[in-house]
């Protein structure tokens, strides 16, 4: 057994990098080890469906190798964790070696869902990691017709990028509108309008019945019987937490690693952060957030909790963005599909909407309205009456 002790972070993405950085910033001087199953240093995922896919950017590394050397952070690449023994305080890697820890931070992100009934044909892609983005990009440049299955954020961004590369794109979504399960139908319709204006064939309220082809994908058959020719198919139907390796560990898992409001799991000395972690909300329910800004917000809370230091006093307002064509869709606060939506600006492409719940402003969503979205931060943080932003 290799006993490193110190703090071991399992996962090699944004959460791993941010947490290691925050540990050193908090003057933790003991050993820090990042264990990643990927062969790349931690990198940024948002560009994968945008600039990387459009071949505008290649290097998405978050920090260069020197950063880890200078900060004495050991990065073990190509080392997937296979199991966790919380009593012995060890993890076992896929190569059979063991690693001891004083504190363990789980940052294993998400695994993209696939459609099991799809045949195993060339040309069918998912997009979660850099290798998958590069594989998709290789085919996207010459694809004439693409079908994107699922109009969540990644599906919508992939559709926009493929369109920009010149492909005919169909976007298929069983919900009534793109992003409906996150932002509600009303804003989803505005997003559908944006894609239609760019020439995307948006098909909502219908799923995929069958995918046909010989060696490569050729046709996607929808539930209503219509057939779409396809050189490539991108499946963007969401992801599930990367917790398979924790089965049998005794750790409480329920839509991710169940944690308190500071990232402590159900086992002593085990913490979780980022897309894989379900943290207790201040209102008492569990929430798992799959957005970039949340990771740094959580690192600023988890690291002091682990080191016995004071947590930050300011509570951050949740934020995420999505780039589709020239429109940056931004969301501040915690809008829910069931909220009352007030669209206060709409020029046919760009828009601004406030979300009302129980009479207060729960969130704001803008398309191409960056300044106006950010201006609402104070009101959302204060739980201001909706009249304050509508008036
Ligand atoms: C294509 C794409 C576009 C996005 N665009 C946006 C955007 O525009 N705006 C926004 O707010 N958010 C966006 N996000 C979300 C954002 O990137 C994530 O919230 C963020 O990456 C979460 O970081 P994480 O470290 O928790 O997970 P990840 O970045 O997924 O990192 C998890 C890491 O753990 C590794 N791992 C998994 N299992 C093991 C194991 N058993 N052992 C060792 N290592 C393991 C994985 O390989 C991976 O390297 C996007 C995500 C994707 C995929």
Automatic annotation (TrEMBL):
It holds the Pfam family Pyr_redox_2. InterPro entries: FAD-oxidoreductase/Apoptosis, FAD/NAD-bd_sf, FAD/NAD-binding_dom, FAD/NAD-linked_Rdtase_dimer_sf, Reductase_C. Gene3D superfamilies: 3.30.390.30, FAD/NAD(P)-binding domain. GO terms for molecular function: oxidoreductase activity, acting on NAD(P)H. One of its GO terms (cellular component) is cytoplasm. SUPFAM superfamilies: FAD/NAD(P)-binding domain, FAD/NAD-linked reductases, dimerisation (C-terminal) domain. The keyword Flavoprotein applies. Residues 7-299 form the FAD/NAD(P)-binding domain. Keywords: FAD, Flavoprotein, Oxidoreductase. Coiled coil: none annotated. Its cofactor is FAD. Residues 319-386 form the Reductase C-terminal domain. The keyword Oxidoreductase applies. This is Pyridine nucleotide-disulfide oxidoreductase. It comes from Mycolicibacterium flavescens (Mycobacterium flavescens).
């Amino acid at each position: 057994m290799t006993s490193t002790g110190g703090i071991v972070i399992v996962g090699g993405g944004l959460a791993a990098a941010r947490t290691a950085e925050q540990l050193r910033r908090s003057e933790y001087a003991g050993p820090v080890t990042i264990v990643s199953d990927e062969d790349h240093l931690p990198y940024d995922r948002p560009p994968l469906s945008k600039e990387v896919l459009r071949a505008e950017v290649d290097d998405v590394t978050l920090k260069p190798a020197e950063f880890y050397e200078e900060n004495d952070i050991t990065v073990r690449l190509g080392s997937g964790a296979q199991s966790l023994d919380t009593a012995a305080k060890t993890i076992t890697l896929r190569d059979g070696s063991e690693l001891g820890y004083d504190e363990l931070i789980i940052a294993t992100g998400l695994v993209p869902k696939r459609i099991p009934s799809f045949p195993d044909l060339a040309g069918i892609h998912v997009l979660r990691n850099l290798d998958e983005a590069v594989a998709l990009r290789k085919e996207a440049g010459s694809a004439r017709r693409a079908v994107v299955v699922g109009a969540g954020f990644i599906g919508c961004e992939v559709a926009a990028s493929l369109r920009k590369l010149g492909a005919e794109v169909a976007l298929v979504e069983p919900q009534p509108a793109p992003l409906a399960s996150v932002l509600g139908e009303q804003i989803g319709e505005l997003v559908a309008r944006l894609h239609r204006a760019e020439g995307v064939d948006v098909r909502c309220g219908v799923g995929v019945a069958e995918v046909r082809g010989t060696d490569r994908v050729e046709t996607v058959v929808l539930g209503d019987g219509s057939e779409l020719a396809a050189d490539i198919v991108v499946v963007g139907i969401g992801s599930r937490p990367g917790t398979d390796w924790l089965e049998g560990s005794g750790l409480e898992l329920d839509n991710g690693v169940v944690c308190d409001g500071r990232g402590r799991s159900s086992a002593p000395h085990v913490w979780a952060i980022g897309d894989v972690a379900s943290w207790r909300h201040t209102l008492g329910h569990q929430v798992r957030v799959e957005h970039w800004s949340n990771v740094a917000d959580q690192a600023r809370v988890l690291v002091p909790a682990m080191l016995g230091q004071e947590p930050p006093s300011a509570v951050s307002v949740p934020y995420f963005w999505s780039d589709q064509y020239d429109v940056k869709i931004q969301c501040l606060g915690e809008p829910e599909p069931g909220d009352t939506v007030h669209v206060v600006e709409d020029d046919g492409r760009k828009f601004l909407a406030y979300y009302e719940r129980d009479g207060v402003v729960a969130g704001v969503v803008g398309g191409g309205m960056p300044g106006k979205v950010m201006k609402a931060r104070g009101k959302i943080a204060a739980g201001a009456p909706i009249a304050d932003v509508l008036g």
